[in-house]
Amino acid sequence: MSTVVLGRQPATTLGDTPTMKSSVPSSPRPERGRAHTVLAFLATGTMLLTSACAVANSDTAGDAGSADGRTLRVVLTQEPPTLEPCESSLTATGVVVRSNITEPLVERDPTSGKLEPLLATGWRQTKPTTWTFDIRPGVTFQNGRPFTAKDAAFSIDRAVNSDLACNVDGYVFGDAKLDVRAVSPTRLTVTTEKTDPILPLRLSFVEIVPRTTDTKAKVRIPIGTGPYAVKSWQTGVSISLARNADYWGKAPAYPRARYVWRSDASVRAAMIDKGEADIATALDHTSADQGNTVAYPNNETTALRLDGREAPLNDIRVRKAIGMAIDRKGIIGALLGGLAKPAAQLVPPGVVGHNDDLAPAPYQEAAARALVKQAAADGVPVHRRITLVARNGMFAGIAEVTEALQYEMARVGLNVRIRMADTATHLQYQLRPLPRGVGPVALLIMHGNQAGDAAFTTSQYLQSDGPQSTFGTKDLDRRIAAADALSGKARQKAFADVLAYQNTSVVQYAYLAHMRGLLGLSPSVRYRPDSATGDEMRLSEVSPATARRR
Questions:
Q1: pLDDT in tens, 15-62
Q2: Neighbours of 137 (CB within 10 A)
Q3: Which of 22, 92, 109, 258 has the fewest CB atoms inside 10 Å of its own CB, making it the most exposed?
Q4: Is the distance from CB of 227 to CB of 244 less than 8 angstroms?
Q5: How far is CA 533 from the centre of its chain?
Q6: What is the torsional sign of CA 321, 327, 329, 335?
C-alpha cells in the first residue's frame, strides 16, 4: 500500500470490485497475454526474479486465548504509527481503528457505492448549505457514556476545525470550515461555506469519539462505539482488543483480537502456513502459499507522474510516447503475478467519475519512438536524463517493475536513470513543495481513492496547484471545479469527462495498472475481503470456519 493513502474506505478506499463468489481462499490466476518487451528484457539477464523464504517468529505471534480459537490473530506489515481516530485515513492506522474501535455517522458500501446509515440513521439536505443528520439512539461508548449529537458535533469539530492537523482535515475538507451544531440529543446540523453535494460522503471519513476526548493532543488509546475496545498496546510487540459487551450492533464472533506486525511478506505468509496467524495482510505472490491466499481489489492504481515543467517531459508528445511504450500486460503477467489490470485512469471502477470508455494505451513501441524522434527534430532535448523515482517496498516486485519501465523508455529513445528511494525521500518528490534542481522526474506513484468519488483524486493529482500534481491547465482546473459542484448522474459524467480530458490534452500521467491485494487466510476462519480490506479490515465480518456462513 502506498504511504500517502488518505481517505475513508467504508464497508472505501472502491475500485475494481467484482463480487467474491466464495470466502474460501482461492489461487490467484495470472492474467494471460503477450509479454512483449518485458520477456525480452528478462532474457537480457539485467534482472533476476527471486522469491525469499523465511521462518516466522513464533514467540510473539501467539496469544493466551488463541489455541481454542477465541482470539483472532492478525499480522500486519507494520506497527500503526498511531491509533488516533482522526488519523485513521492512514492505512496502517485505519486497518486497526476503523469499524473496529470507532465508527462514523455514515459508511459507504464498497461494492454498490451506496451510502448507508451507521451512527446516523438518516440525513437530508435541509438548505443549500446545510445537512441535517438523525442520530442513532441507545448507543454507548466503550467507557459507558451515552452517545449523542453533541459527541458527533464535537468529533467533527475536533477533526476538521481544530489545530490538531488531522489527515481527514486537509484531504477531505481542504481549507473549508464547518458550522456544526447539536440541535437536540438526536439531531445534528452541519453547514458548509458553499453548497457541498457530497458532504455525507465526506463525513464518512470522520470517526466519532466522546466529547471528553483531548482537543489539544492526539490520543494514544482511542475510545469509540465500535464492536471492540483496546485492551493493551505493547509498543513494538502487539495490540490487543477485547469485544465490547455493550456494542449496539451484532456482537462479533471472536471475543478477542490481537495484531502483530512483520515487515517481510514471506514471514507473514509463513505465519499463516504454520498456524501462527489467522489473517496476514499484503502478501507477496512470489512467496505465498496459493492454497491459503485470496486476491481482492485494493483500490490502488500505479502510474508514472510526469513532471511537465521540465524538458523533455514538458513536451506532450514525449509524455504520450511514454504511455505508449509501457507493455502493461507483459509487466502484469511477468512481474506482478497477474494480480492487476491495465489502467487507463487514476481511479478504478466503482469510483464516481470512473470513465468506462477509456481504454489502456496499447503497447506501440514503434509509434512511441516516432513521437520522440518528432519531438527531437523540433529541438526538444530528448536525450536529457530523466530520473525515474520509485519507493522501496511500494509493492511486491517494485524494483523489477521499475527496471522494466526504464528499459521500455530507453527503447523509444529516452535517457532514464533509476533512483530507488525510501519513504521520506519519495514523499519529497510526491508532495508540494516539490524539490528544485533535480531535473525531469518520472515518479512512480500508487494512488488509492478510498472515498469513492473522483473529486478526491482530481483535487490532489490533477489540479494545477494540487498537493500531488506537478502541473496542469486553467481549463482542466475549471472543469474540475464545475464537476465538483454537481451531483448524481451529472457529477459522474462531468468527472468522467475530466479524466478523458487529462488523457488527451494534459497527459501528466502514464498509467500502469489497477492493483489487487493478496490476503493470507487460515483455513480456520471465514472472511470475504473486498476493496475496503486494505484500509479497513472489519473484524466483525470474520467468523470461525466451523460456523455457519451468514
A1: 322 223 223 233 333 333 344 556 566 555 444 333 333 333 333 444
A2: 12
A3: 22
A4: yes
A5: 10
A6: negative
SS (H, E, C) 134-180: EECCCCECCCCCECCHHHHHHHHHHHHHCCCCCHHHHHHHCCCCCEE
Mean pLDDT calculated for residue range 419-440: 93
Distances (CA, A) of 58 to 22, 64, 283: 30, 13, 18
The grid coordinates listed for 218 are 492526539
Mean pLDDT for the stretch of residues 67-96: 90
Q: 279-280 and 509-521 as β-strands: parallel, antiparallel, unpaired?
A: antiparallel
In one-letter notation, the amino acid at residue 536 is E
How is residue 289 written as a grid cell?
A: 502459499
Q: Assess contact for 428 and 435: CB atoms under 8 A.
A: yes
Among the residues of 171-285, which ranges form H helices? 199-203, 265-273
Q: Is the bond into 128 cis (omega within 30 degrees of 0)?
A: no
Question: 378-410: string of b/e by CB count within 10 Å (b at 16+)?
Answer: eebebeeebbbbbbebbbbbbbbbbbbbbbbbe
Alpha-carbon torsion 445, 11, 131, 145, what sign? negative
DSSP H helical ranges for 258-379: 265-273, 316-325, 328-335, 365-377
In the numeric block, the cell 520477456 is attached to 39
Give the three-class secondary structure for 239. strand
CA separation, residue 122 to residues 135, 187, 199 (Å): 8, 10, 13
pLDDT in tens, 124-152: 999 999 999 999 999 999 999 999 999 99
Grid cell, residue 323, equals 504511455
Are the CB atoms for 486 and 348 separated by under 8 Å? no
**Gap between the Cα atoms of 421 and 443, Å rounded:** 11
Instruction: Give the global pTM.
Output: 0.81
Query: How far apart, in Å, do the first and last CA atoms of the chain sit?
Result: 30
Strands 386-391 and 416-421: parallel
Cα-Cα-Cα-Cα dihedral sign, residues 192, 196, 197, 203: negative
Q: Are 259 and 539 contacting, i.e. CB atoms less than 8 angstroms apart?
A: no
E-strand ranges in 381-530 read 386-391, 416-421, 441-448, 509-521, 525-526
Q: Which three cell numbers stand for residue 14?
A: 472502491
**What amino acid occupies position 415?**
N
SS (H, E, C) 52-91: CCCCCCCCCCCCCCHHHCCEEEEEECCCCCCCCHHHCCCH
Which pLDDT belongs to residue 288? 76
Determine what percent of the chain is predicted with pLDDT higher than 70. Answer: 87
- Helix (DSSP H) and strand (DSSP E) numbers for the chain: 14, 19
168: number of Cβ within 10 Å:
24
Cell 492493483 sits at which residue? 515
CB 164 within 8 A of CB 3: no
| Cα 78 to Cα 279: distance, rounded to the nearest angstrom | 14
In terms of DSSP H, where are the helices of 217-345?
Answer: 265-273, 316-325, 328-335
Instruction: Give the phi and the psi of residue 401 in degrees, each rounded to 5.
Output: -65, -40
Q: What number of CA atoms fall less than 13 Å from residue 93's CA on the CB side? A: 25
